[in-house]
User: What shape does this take?
Amino acid sequence: MYNGQSATPIPDNPKSDRGLSPLNVRHNLVVNGVYSFPSPVGSRFMSNALGGWQLSSILTVSSGSPFTPLLNGRSAPNLSDSSGGKQRPDLVAGRSFSSIVLGGPDRYFDPSAFVLPPTGFYGNAGRDILVGPGYASVDLSVFKSMHVPLGEAGRLEFRADFFNLANRANFAIPSGLQVINASTGRPISSAGKITSTVGTSRQLQFGLKLSF
Assistant: This one.
């Protein structure tokens, strides 16, 4: 099951399962660039010390992935797996999708926007009606190359790489996708809670390379 998706919850009416793909990322921006610092004019020492530096970076920004709120169990009897949470709840009348998303990791969406459908009925909440947190990261690299007296090909290269330079926490979709227990009609306390991140925290690496 991916982002709350598996087999259609209404086997005899697959058209009711139309919606966004869980792989749909509506906005995706990647910008990269390289800048070479000019070498200063002057002594050989200053040229070697201050020349040959390069700065490169990659900016990645994207919107989140869609996901589906689910029931824990079944409201309408069918041949689906009752433990898979495939059926969906009813959406409370008057609630807009934009008002449901709260944004915090402890409760990313408002589970009170969903109720248990009447017994024997399928929920009217659509597939992938909510969108998870967006992603943003900046990677930075600093590179230096200079000649060393080890023959004509002698060069010393230094580089420093910084991944997720701002150390931004990029949250995954909520792990608590099941909002209501279909057997009891009670809300599930973990609904809307985010328990994981995507990408990495800030990471640094340094390297030296000697060529001769």
About this structure: Helices lie at 44-50, 97-100. The mean pLDDT is 86. The radius of gyration is 26 Å. Residues 43 and 166 are 37 Å apart (CA to CA).
